[in-house]
Structure formats: structure tokens, C-alpha cells
Design brief:
Elements lengths: L4 E6 L3 E8 L2 E8 L3 H11 L5 E4 L3 H7 L5 E2 L2 H15 L6 E7 L3 E7 L2 E8 L3 H12 L4 H9 L8 E2 H5 L11 E3 L11 H26 L4 E5 L7 H13 L3 E4 L6 H8 L2
Parallel strand pairs: 1-4, 4-5, 6-11, 11-12
Antiparallel strand pairs: 1-2, 2-3, 6-7, 7-8, 9-10
Length: about 270
């Protein structure tokens, strides 16, 4: 069957696609390295289907492959897709923060259906892949996630309790005083390095997100993006730190495809 319409989110690392076929919405992802092969294949197999593009490489895809495609602003597209998926999951919110953790991280405010970017960071999936490779030698996402699942951040990170020892600390001693601050030699395992890295990414994103939530008086923080997908260690840390700071963490099914879905729904 040929898709009736297609939405594509072309980011820095992945091409995410949402397409409608016989009234059902389906999702696919491709590495950005597969851009030419995947887009040429799509151009041949779905030549008549209307296409909407979003993301940093949307204009490039339009120029190179789909001249008749429409371009949807990235944050607007993510907001449309997230709202749709939240309703599917039985969640309905007029106001929420949408944290898109892709290659980097964007923090967007949804206020009564209008979405705007309020903050962000270069800390994200690109950090996990780049620093992860430097620290562990691994370049595969799933292998880095696997390493994280079996390591201990406290073997690499300097904790509050380490600084105050042997006395009690005035705040939670398990909190990080310095990411990687305990590393003095090469004896720290790859697993511990990967776990410390994931912990640093989670802490940074949660601190920025909760600060924005306080500023805009928002209770629910919605985490989406490809870096969260199939990454239970990161997801668990985002949950832990968000709740610790008094906000509600929310994860939605197919959240990595919010941008592609929003583009599709705009047609």
C-alpha cells in the first residue's frame, strides 16, 4: 500500500517519518547517513503523496527531493504532535513544558495551544554519542545505553557526601558536587564513565527544565525525543531528578516522532 500523506522531521542525527496508510499512522526512523538512499526510495514509492517537512534539514530536503512539500516550523510541529499523542495516552493539558531531547535539547512552552521555545542546551544526544565515544571507545547508541545500565556514576562523580565526609552534609549527600570529579587515573570502568555521562546529561536537562517550569508556573514536564527512546537509564534519571525538584515528569508513546507527526497532521 502507498501512504496517503507523509510527515518528515529531518534533524541533525536522524530522519524521523510519520505516514498515514489506510487511516493508520505509522512511524519510521533513519540515520542521517541514509538520507540519500531513504529519500530517493520515498520519492519513487510515494511520488503522489503530499509531504510536509520540519526540522533543521527541512529546506534541504525540499530543495533536493520534494519541491512541492510544505515546511512546518520545528517547534510548532513538535507541539502539534505532542498534543495529539498526549490525548491518545489520555493526557490533556492546556499548558505544559515540552522538552525535546534530540542531538541537542530544546525547551518549549505550550500555552493554550501556542508553542514557543523558551530555553535550550547543546547538551543532548550528540553529547552522549560524542563524549561517550571519547570516554568509552563505543560509537553505537545501544551499546552506550547498555554500558550505562551496568555502571555506577558515584565511581566517577564527586558527590556532596564525599566533600563533607566524615561529617553529615547539609543537603542530600547523594547529589553530584562535580561530574567526573572523582576521576584521578584510568582505573574507572567504561560502564562507570558512561553512567556518569548519562547522569550529567540528565541533571543538566532537568535543572534547565525545572527552572523554566518555575518561571512559567508549569507543573508537568513532557520529555520527548530520540535520545529518550530505548534509553531506560536516561529516562529513569529524568524521572528521579524532575520529581526531586517538585515537578511531574511525563513520557508519551512515540514521543520521538512528535515533529514528524505534527508535520503530517498539518497537511
Amino acid at each position: 500500500m502507498k501512504p496517503a500523506k507523509i510527515g518528515i522531521d529531518a534533524g541533525g542525527s536522524l530522519l524521523k517519518m510519520a505516514f498515514e496508510e489506510q487511516g493508520q499512522i505509522h512511524y519510521k526512523s533513519y540515520s542521517i547517513d541514509e538520507l540519500y538512499s531513504s529519500m530517493n526510495w520515498l520519492k519513487m514509492t510515494a511520488a503522489e503523496a503530499p509531504i510536509a517537512l520540519t526540522g533543521g534539514k527541512a529546506e534541504y530536503l525540499q530543495n533536493e527531493f520534494f519541491q512541492n512539500a510544505r515546511i512546518v516550523p520545528e517547534f510548532e510541529s513538535c507541539g502539534i504532535g505532542a498534543s495529539y499523542l498526549m490525548k491518545q495516552d489520555g493526557l490533556s493539558h492546556d499548558n505544559f513544558l515540552l522538552i525535546s531531547i534530540g542531538t541537542g535539547t530544546s525547551i518549549c512552552l505550550n500555552n493554550g495551544g501556542r508553542i514557543s521555545r523558551v530555553s535550550g542546551s547543546g547538551i543532548g544526544g550528540g553529547t552522549l554519542m560524542g563524549l561517550g565515544r571519547l570516554l568509552t571507545g563505543e560509537k553505537d547508541f545501544s551499546k552506550l545505553v547498555s554500558l550505562t545500565g551496568s555502571g555506577k556514576a558515584e565511581n566517577a562523580d564527586l558527590l556532596i557526601k564525599d566533600i563533607y565526609s566524615p561529617f553529615d552534609s547539609p543537603i542530600d549527600g547523594s547529589l553530584t558536587a562535580s561530574n567526573f570529579g572523582k576521576i584521578k587515573d584510568d582505573q574507572v570502568s567504561k560502564e562507570d564513565k558512561a553512567t556518569s555521562l548519562t547522569n550529567m546529561i540528565a541533571e543538566t536537562i532537568v535543572l534547565l527544565s525545572t527552572q523554566a517550569a518555575v518561571q512559567h508556573q508549569i507543573g508537568d514536564i513532557i520529555y520527548i525525543g530520540s535520545t529518550v527512546q530505548h534509553n531506560e537509564p536516561l529516562k529513569s534519571l529524568l524521572k528521579k531528578y524532575t520529581a526531586m525538584l517538585g515537578k511531574k515528569p511525563v513520557f508519551i508513546q512515540n514521543g520521538a516522532h512528535c515533529g514528524a507527526l505534527g508535520a503530517l497532521l498539518s497537511l
